[in-house]
Automatic annotation (TrEMBL):
Protein name (record): Fumarylacetoacetate hydrolase family protein
Keyword Hydrolase: yes
One MF term in the entry's GO annotations: oxaloacetate tautomerase activity
Residues covered by the Fumarylacetoacetase-like C-terminal domain: 67-282
Origin species: Aspergillus bertholletiae
Family assignment from sequence similarity: Belongs to the FAH family.
Family matches, as InterPro entries: Fumarylacetoacetase-like_C (IPR011234), Fumarylacetoacetase_C_sf (IPR036663)
Keywords: Hydrolase, Metal-binding
Length: 285
C-alpha cells in the first residue's frame, strides 16, 4: 500500500499534544525535532511543514481491533520445545487491552507466575484483508509496516491443567503486548535490508537486564507473511490496525535449564535491526 512515511513515530510533545512524526534513522527519539504529519491514524496521514519535539514516545497505534499471535513459528524454537512441526500457522489472540507502549512498565498480576518474554517481529495491517491467496496476492498490499513486540506470557496459565491446551489466556492480560518504538514501512525495510521470499531478513535480539537471551534472524521463520495472511484471512476479515506478532525464536525462559523466569523489576529489551528497540520493566503486584 502507498504510504507517506518511512519510520513513523507516535509521540507527545512539550505541550502535551500527541502527533505522528517521521523519526530519524538512529535510535535516539526523545529530545529530537521531527517533521509531523496531520492525521490521527497512521493509514491516513498528510505531510506538513511543521516540526515538534519528541518528549515521550507512545505506542505507535492508539488502539487495535485485535492482536494475533503465531506460535511455534521459528525453526530454532520448534527444536527447542521438541514439538512436532506444525502444518499450518498456530494462531492465538490477544485482546485490545493487551496493547502497550514501547517503554511502558508492564503491570503483572500476582497470579501470573512463571513469567516469560517472547521477542517478536510485528506486522501492522493497513488495509482490510479477506481470503488472501498467497499464489496470486501480494501481502505488502495489505501491510502498513513492521514494528517490534514482546509477547509477554504467564507460563503458569499456559500449562495444560490451567489452560486445557488453550494458551491464549496466558498471553492476554492487560499490557502483555508492548510494541514500538516506530512503524517502519515495508518499502523502507526492503530498501535497506535483505529480503528472503518477500519477507525481511532482520536480526532479532532479546535481553533481560542487559543479558542476551535471544539472538536470531527473522529468516528462521517457518511460515512467512503470505502463509500467515492466507491462513488468518480464510473466511475472516483481518481488519485494518490489526497487529500480527509473527513468532519468537529460541531462547525463551521456559526452556532454559533451570527456567529463568522474569521477576519484578526485570527490564526486557527487544531489538530488531532497521526498526529499533523497545524496553519494558516488569512490575509484579
Amino acid at each position: 500500500m502507498a504510504l507517506n512515511f518511512e519510520r513513523l513515530v507516535r509521540f507527545r510533545d512539550s505541550q502535551g499534544q500527541i502527533h505522528y512524526g517521521e523519526a530519524h534513522s538512529n535510535d535516539k527519539l526523545v529530545g529530537t525535532q521531527v517533521p509531523i504529519y496531520a492525521g490521527s491514524v497512521p493509514w491516513d496521514l498528510r505531510r506538513t511543514t511543521q516540526t515538534a519535539e519528541v518528549v515521550e514516545v507512545l505506542c505507535p497505534l492508539p488502539s487495535v481491533p485485535i492482536i494475533y499471535g503465531i506460535g511455534m513459528n521459528y525453526k530454532g524454537h520448534i527444536e527447542e520445545v521438541k514439538f512436532p512441526v506444525p502444518r499450518h500457522p498456530v494462531i492465538f489472540t490477544k485482546p485490545p487491552d493487551a496493547l502497550a507502549g514501547p517503554y511502558d512498565a508492564i503491570p503483572i498480576d500476582s497470579s501470573c507466575t512463571n513469567l516469560d518474554y517472547e521477542g517478536e517481529l510485528c506486522v501492522i495491517i493497513g488495509t482490510d484483508c479477506k481470503n488472501f491467496i498467497k499464489t496470486t496476492d501480494n501481502p505488502l498490499d495489505y501491510v502498513l509496516g513492521y514494528s517490534i513486540g514482546n509477547d509477554v506470557s504467564s507460563r503458569f496459565w499456559q500449562e495444560p491443567p490451567q489452560s486445557g491446551n488453550q494458551h491464549g489466556y496466558a498471553k492476554s492480560f492487560d499490557k502483555f503486548a508492548p510494541i514500538g518504538p516506530v512503524i517502519a514501512s515495508a518499502e523502507a525495510i526492503a530498501s535497506q535490508h535483505r529480503m528472503q521470499g518477500g519477507d525481511p531478513d532482520l536480526q532479532l535480539r532479546t535481553l533481560v537486564n542487559g543479558e542476551e537471551r535471544q539472538n536470531s534472524r527473522t529468516s528462521d521463520l517457518l511460515f512467512g507473511l503470505s502463509d500467515i495472511l492466507e491462513h488468518l484471512s480464510r473466511g475472516t476479515t483481518v481488519r485494518r490496525g490489526t497487529v500480527i506478532m509473527t513468532g519468537t525464536p529460541k531462547g525463551v525462559a521456559a526452556f532454559m535449564e533451570p527456567p529463568r523466569w522474569l521477576r519484578s523489576g526485570d527490564v526486557v529489551q527487544v531489538e530488531i535491526e532497521g526498526i529499533g528497540k523497545i524496553k519494558n520493566t516488569m512490575v509484579i503486584a
